[in-house]
Every structure is written in C-alpha cells, then in structure tokens.
Amino acid sequence: MALLPLVFPLGSLAAPGPGGGHPGPGASYRNTVEVHNYTDDATQVDRQAQLNVIDPRAVDGEVDPQNAAVSYGSCVGCSTITVALHLDLVLPGDIPEANPANVAYAVNDNCDGCTTLSRACQEVTSIGDPRDVLLALWH
User: Fold this and answer.
1) Nearest CA to 100 among 71, 128, 130, 120?
2) Is 42 exposed, middle or buried (0-12, 13-18, 19+ CB in 10 A)?
3) What integer best gives the mean pLDDT of the chain?
4) Model pLDDT for residues 54-95, shown as the tens digit of each residue
5) Number of domains in the chain
6) Does some domain include residue 2?
7) Which of 7, 78, 13, 93 is nearest to 39 (CA)?
8) By residue range, what is the domain housing residue 116?
9) Sign of CA dihedral 11, 18, 25, 100
C-alpha cells in the first residue's frame, strides 16, 4: 500500500491536558495513541482508554475533547495497531460551543506485506446529575 499524502493535525492532539487528564480553564481533554513500527516482522500494539467527567464551569464552557489513534508502519512483514477509546460525560452548565474531535490514521510507507490498523472511538454525552455518571456508563 502506498503512502497517502495526509496532513496529521496532531499538534493540537499530541499532549494530555495538565493535571493528568483533568485540565483547567481553556485546556482540552486529550487522548492520543501513536505507534511507529520500523522493525521487520515485528508486531507493535498500543491502546489507551480515557474517561472524563467534564464540568463546563471548570473549562470556561469550552468542551473540546480530542481523541486520536495513529499507526505508522515502514518495514517488511510487520503489524502496527493502535486503539484509542474516549468517553466524555459532560455535566450541566453553559456550553456555548462543543468541538469534539475523533481521528484515526493508519499509514503504510514502503511496507511489503504489512498490516497497519488504527481505530478511534469517542462518545461525548451530557448527563443531568453527577450521580448519573454510573447510569451513563451502563448505556
């Protein structure tokens, strides 16, 4: 498979927010998984799941959770797999705009007999009461 001319918008997705995924005002909730495989006949897999309970008051109403999975293979007979799972539960509050982003890229660059897979899954949902978090997880 040939290298696709893609522009990766990872500059804004590359780092988790301050405080281990619980950012302050103006920051984002980010989940990024990225694997680069350059070793022939090797399998490299990475995955990450993140659960956020977002209080719009704590982030100045900016609800912009971001989720990315990126797999890059440049080898012979290798396998490269990434999975990013992002669940964002938004508490009641004034949200002027919500901008969730969910991307997955899988790129083979001069690979012969390679398998490169990438999967990103994101769910952003509002919950009425903080005690509803457990109920939201069951649905």
Assistant:
1) 120
2) middle
3) 78
4) 888 777 777 888 999 999 999 999 999 999 999 888 888 777
5) 1
6) no
7) 78
8) 30-138
9) positive
